[in-house]
């Protein structure tokens, strides 16, 4: 067995979800919404599977979806993308990330990673033969500076794996951080693989800035998006890849030997969805903001130190002010004694973790969130 995968322990997500099932706890650990997704988009997928083409679609994706991705990003992010040479469709963003790493990394190449990080990143980097170099981000702002980058970039740096907005911190890197990263990538000849799946799930009137909107990164960055996050259809696994032609040509070769294609009915439905009126995207964010605000207020009222949530489905608490520095033990106690499942953020670090931050998913119905808040209100009062 390959030790990279054979030796990976059961993830904390499965551990907490299993405990939630066993105890009947409210599960705010896994990151998927209660909302079933827009009915008209789902209807388009149903119609396409009954009356549309169900054999192999083009390897690069349906032309109508590649055009829709190009038009969508021009509309919302001001990007100019050639749908024929700069856009590819994959079976989810994780496949896109894996394919990009396999295409760009040779054994021994160094890869810069920002932790906390999505749990798939490190195994994929190692399987591609990459040598990880970590930038450690800390609450409450989760930012990096020039000294952080200088400590990890070298002549062997080949790829930077970036996530903006950042899961699990629920933070957004501003343009100035992207420009700083761009200067380092230019200096060292590195390529950025940018996981931007949360680009539409961003709050408080902010607008997403893609790596492709930064001049120094336009020709040396891979932008990855996800229909699952845009439409709250996490099971659909339809990803978007955008990059300059020279990069995309190589990325396509990796995609060809991973999944090759993505279900055509889902592609057709996503193409329809990306052209929806602004009201959908505004309303989706507004609904999530209301859920975030409800849950944040309840957490604060229960005595927790609530960290800012600028994007994603998640909100974090910092237990350090309460003198708690073992987030794993706290989460186990929370699910077994108080009936709420959450995720310890230390699980998203490979080394020197922050051990006082806990993540909750708030993309749930109000009754679910209120039920969880009733239980969470007992945590400190019972301890007292």
Automatic annotation (TrEMBL):
SUPFAM superfamilies: PLP-dependent transferases
Transferase listed as a keyword: yes
Pfam family of the protein (one): Aminotran_1_2
Entry cofactors: pyridoxal 5'-phosphate
Catalyzed chemical reaction(s): L-aspartate + 2-oxoglutarate = oxaloacetate + L-glutamate
The Aminotransferase class I/classII large domain, residue ranges: 25-376
Cellular compartments per GO CC: cytoplasm
Enzyme Commission number, as recorded: 2.6.1.1
Assigned keywords, A-Z: Aminotransferase, Pyridoxal phosphate, Transferase
Molecular-function GO terms, alphabetical: kynurenine-oxoglutarate transaminase activity; L-aspartate:2-oxoglutarate aminotransferase activity; pyridoxal phosphate binding
Superkingdom classification of source: Bacteria
Oligomer and partners: Homodimer.
Annotated family: Belongs to the class-I pyridoxal-phosphate-dependent aminotransferase family.
NCBIfam families, per the entry: PRK08912.1 (NF006488)
PANTHER family: FI04487P (PTHR43807)
The protein's name in its UniProt record: aspartate transaminase
């Amino acid at each position: 067995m390959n030790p990279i995968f054979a030796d990976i322990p059961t993830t904390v997500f499965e551990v907490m979800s299993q405990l939630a099932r066993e105890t009947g706890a409210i599960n705010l650990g896994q990151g998927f919404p209660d909302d079933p997704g827009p009915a008209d988009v789902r209807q388009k997928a149903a119609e396409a599977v009954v009356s549309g083409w169900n054999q192999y679609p083009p390897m690069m994706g349906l032309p109508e979806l590649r055009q829709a991705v190009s038009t969508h990003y021009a509309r919302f992010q001001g990007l100019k993308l050639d749908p024929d040479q700069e856009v590819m469709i994959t079976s989810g963003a994780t496949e896109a990330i894996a394919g990009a790493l396999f295409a760009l990394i040779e054994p021994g190449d160094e890869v810069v990673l920002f932790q906390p990080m999505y749990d798939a990143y490190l195994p994929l980097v190692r399987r591609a033969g990459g040598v990880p170099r970590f930038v450690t981000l800390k609450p409450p702002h989760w930012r990096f500076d020039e000294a952080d980058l200088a400590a990890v970039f070298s002549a062997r740096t080949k790829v930077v794996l970036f996530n903006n907005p950042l899961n699990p911190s629920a933070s957004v890197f501003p343009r100035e951080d992207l420009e700083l990263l761009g200067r380092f990538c230019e200096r060292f000849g590195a390529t950025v693989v940018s996981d931007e799946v949360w680009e539409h799930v961003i709050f408080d009137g902010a607008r997403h800035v893609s790596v492709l909107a930064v001049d120094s990164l336009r020709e040396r960055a891979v932008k990855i998006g996800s229909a699952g996050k845009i439409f709250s259809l996490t099971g659909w696994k339809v990803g978007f890849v955008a990059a300059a032609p020279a990069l995309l040509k190589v990325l396509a070769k990796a995609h060809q030997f991973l999944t090759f294609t993505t279900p055509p009915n889902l592609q057709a439905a996503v193409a329809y969805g990306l052209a929806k009126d602004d009201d959908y995207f505004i309303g989706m964010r507004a609904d999530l903001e209301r859920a975030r605000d409800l849950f944040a207020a309840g957490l604060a009222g229960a005595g927790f130190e609530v960290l800012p949530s600028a994007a994603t489905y998640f909100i974090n608490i910092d237990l350090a002010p309460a003198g708690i520095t073992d987030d794993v033990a706290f989460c186990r106690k929370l699910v077994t004694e108080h009936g709420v499942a959450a995720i310890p953020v230390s699980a998203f670090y490979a080394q020197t973790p922050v051990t006082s931050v806990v993540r909750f998913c708030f993309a749930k119905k109000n009754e679910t969130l209120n039920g969880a808040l009733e239980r969470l209100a007992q945590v400190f009062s019972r301890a007292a």
